[in-house]
Amino acid sequence: MVLEKTHKLTLLNDDEHSFEYVTACLIELCKHEQIQAIQCVSIVDNVGKYDIKNGDFDYIFDLKSKLTEVGLLTEISENESNLH
After folding, report:
1. Cβ–Cβ under 8 Å, residues 61 and 76
2. Which DSSP letter does residue 54 get?
3. Which of 1, 17, 32, 44 is the most buried (most CB within 10 A)?
């Protein structure tokens, strides 16, 4: 069964956590490969935010909760393809 990617999780720059800490969190909680995590954190550091995961609402909400528990700022939004 393929889950629809109806929502996205965006990581926001909080200027509080270290590059290394956020990278480690993405590896552990989002199951990113090291290079993927480093690239995501670099974009967030330079741009201020970046979409780090897509999935169904329940999956994205659960991941947001885990990232919030470790102090990271995220937001959930619907993927544009699902907006009518």
Report:
1. yes
2. E
3. 44
